[in-house]
Each structure stands twice: as structure tokens, then as C-alpha cells.
Amino acid sequence: MGTLNINPELDDQIFNTINPLDPEEFRKQGHMIVNFLADYYQNIEKYPVCSQVNPGYLQKLVPNSAPDNPEPLENILQDVKRDIIPGITHWQSPNFFAYFPSSGSIAGFLGEMLSVGFNVVGFNWISSPAATELESIVMDWFGKMLNLPNSFLFSGGGGGVLQGTTCEAMLCTIVAARDQMLRKIGRENFGKLVVYTSDQTHFSLKKAAHIAGIDPENFRVIPTTKANEYVLCPKSLRLAILKDTKEGMIPLFLCATIGTTSTTSVDPLRSLCEIAKEYGIWVHVDAAYAGSACICPEFQHFLDGIENANSFSLNAHKWFFSTLDCCCLWVKDPSALTKALSTNPECLRNKATELKQVIDYKDWQIALSRRFRALKLWLVLRNYGVTNLRNLIRSHVNMAKHFEGLIAMDKRFEIFVPRKFAMVCFRISPSVISRVSTTFDEEQVNKYNTKLVESINSSGKLYLTHGVVGGIYIIRFAIGASLTDYMHVDVAWKVIQDHANVLLIPGSF
Questions:
Q1: Continuous H helices in 221-301
Q2: How deeply is 27 buried, as exposed, middle or buried, from its count of CB atoms within 10 A (0-12, 13-18, 19+)?
Q3: Is the pLDDT of residue 477 over 50?
Q4: Residue positions of the PTM N6-(pyridoxal phosphate)lysine (predicted)?
Q5: Which one, of 50, 45, 36, lies nearest residue 465 by Cα?
Q6: pTM for this one?
Q7: What are the distances in angstroms from CA 224 to CA 199, 260, 471?
Q8: What is the CATH T-level fold of the domain 121-371, as seen in this structure?
Q9: Which of 240, 166, 236 is nearest to 207 (CA)?
């Protein structure tokens, strides 16, 4: 019998191996992280809203290789404060008015903590029954709050699923529509499939269509006009469809939007859906930003006609106080998704699935693995309640009305399009530019407004983003950060005015 050789160095390494899930160490370090984040929110207004660092800044601050030995969390958090926070654009700052909101909440954070803490992989029901069943319950809850038709709820033969982002929801629905159509017309006609959209539809649709294999030449972008408030015109849609059908093309998919990115325009769902129905076109309704507002009865008229759509999505991580990522997608016909996206390997076979007693959400999405996202949405709904959630959204809308009133009192500015939700689109008025500039045309007006936004953002006091619609540069002021109050709106307006005062001095630009 051979002798046992023991390597002392190896034995020491085994003896000193840490337990990565030691409960007491987790308790200790978890408290440190919560306290760190609480301090961060207490002091968030002290930081420049938009990060002021230069590209590549972090490479100069951190070592060029990972440490061999463990470092205490206290030291790491000091580095976060010194090196990481300066490189963060603070989306939760009350002075963040850019893009669309990514509204956070205590309930959203804690729900995320529970989800990460359990760390289940809920690809099918048997892999974690609660993850599947809570998701289907929460999606029906939310659907009822929106007053969606019963056909979009599990109770009515439809159903909802939590995706990561709008792009994923669009890709899933395009793939479902594609395969549904190809089963009717044959795969040899793939190259004839056409997707319809307006020039205000979110750019993620084009990406989704490309991934789904739609010929880029078959992606129809229908122009909109200011006279029509940049909505997708049903007459223009019909003309585009007629042209395609005469040329032997096959209309497949239409994306209508409730709350477009540039101006929060709302497409006329009823009219668009009626046209789409004539041609067997799948209609997806993208309400990524504004859909959350539709839990308020006064906004539900924007969903008029939704009963004739095939799918509907919104981002709860935008304006529903749930952390990224949490895109809610409802479909009338779940089988359209599952027929296109199902996988049935032997290792995932189980009795509940084979007897069709359960939902397997892996077949409702692109990826196989999935997180327990329903926990955070469940916590948000239960911890705040429908009444409070409505009032939070209304408070943002009322602050936007207030900001709109401030603009109206300063004749140097103009509202570009009527406000519908909690975003105001405005710009320095062309009439003012004509008095302070030696040259005057739309390009010059755009340059002044561009300079104003750049100047404001470089100050770090607030963060704004812009849009270009019909060649016109507009400033977007989106209210939705959870910490924002009227005081912050008033201060933001003062900052805007102060920068405009400097910019509009004759000869200064």
C-alpha cells in the first residue's frame, strides 16, 4: 500500500478556504451595504447629476489585475466612494430629468434583494414553482389595474410574462408573428415579410426585426408630422400596406406606441388595429414609458382599441418604481409565443409540464434561464398599494404641469408639443434667436438649443437629454425620479434660465 503524500501548502489553502455563503458574514456585510446605500441617497444631491469623468478614467485608478488575497469590504466600499461614484450618472437624483425615469423604491430594492438572495433559476415550473406562479398572479394583478381586456389575462386565455427589456419583448412578439405567418404561407416566403412602424417608434424595434431575420429593405418607417402631433397616421399606414400587397409583399407586424421617446405621442390604436386586422397583421403596442400611467383612470383612454391588439408591453422599471430590469409583456395568444420559442430537452422533462398543468416561462422568452423578477413587482404592489402608486404617478404629472406653466411665463421659450404625461418638450424660441444671432435659420436655432443643453449638463446641477424631430432639436424635461419634488423643478428652471441668460447675450455664441 502506497504512502499518503500530504502537501502542507495545499492543506493550508483548503483549511483557509472561505465560505462564500456564511450567514453571519452575510448579515454583517449586508448591513454595511444597506448603510452605504442609505448614506448615498441621503447625499445624492451633492454629486454632479451627469458624470463629469473623461473616457478611460477608471483604468488609471484600479490595478491591472485581480488581487490574489481577499480584501475587507470596508476597503472596497471606500474605493466605490472614491473611484466608482464619480463615474456614475445618478439616475435616482432628484435633479435627473433626462431620457425617461428609472424610478427606484425601497420595495423595488428589497424585492431585488430577495430575488438575488434566493438566486433561483426559474426556467420552468418545477425548477421553482413559486417563481412561475407568483409571476402569473402578479401579471394578472397588473393587467387588471390597467383595465386590460380579459383576453390579455390568464383568466381569459391570454397571459403575461416578465421580460428584461422592451427590445426582448419586441423580439419575442416579432418571432411569434413570423412563425405564425410562415406556418400559413410557407418558409420560402420569409423574404416577403414586412414590418411597419413610424419614424417615432423606439429604435429597439429595428434591432429586434434585424435579429428576427426580417430583410432590412422590408422595414417600413412611416413619416409623421408636427401638424398631427407626430402620431402614426392610419391613412399613411394603409397606403404603405396597399403598396406592399400590390408588389406581392406580405404585411406581418405593426408596432404602435403609447408615449413615444421624443415627444410622448400616442398612436391612434383603434384605427390602426382596424386596418391591421384587415390584413392579418400582428399589432404590438409599446407603452414602455407611459403604460404605467394607465393605472390611473384618467389616462386609460389612451388604451382605447387595445382589445384589438395582439400584444402589449410596458417597462415597470421606468415609471413603476421597480428596478431594472422589469418589462411586462401581455399576449392574447400565449401559444404563438410557445410554438416559436419552446425547447424540450430531456433534462427538463417533468410530469407537471407533460400533463400541461403549468406554465414554463422559458418558452415565453428568448433566453432559457430567468430570474425571479416577480418578487420585486409583488413587493412594489403590496408595499405601496394601488392608491399610492396612482398618487405617485399623478404627483409627477402635476410637477410637469407646473414646469409647463413656468415655461409659459418666459417668452424666450416655447413648448414644442402638447404635454401628455410627465415630460415637457420645449426649446429656445426661434424668434429669440433671430434677435441675438447674425445668421438665422433652423440649423442656427438647433445650435443654440444644443449649446444650452451641453452647458447645463456640464454644470452637473441637473441632467437633460434631447430629441430631434423633423429636423428640429428639442429639449426633453422628463420628471419621474422618485426623490424629485416641486423644489427641484423650480431650481432646475432657474438653472435653465441662468444658462439661457448667458447664451442669449448678443455675440456670445
A1: 234-246, 269-279
A2: exposed
A3: yes
A4: 318
A5: 50
A6: 0.92
A7: 6, 12, 12
A8: Aspartate Aminotransferase; domain 2 (3.40.640)
A9: 166
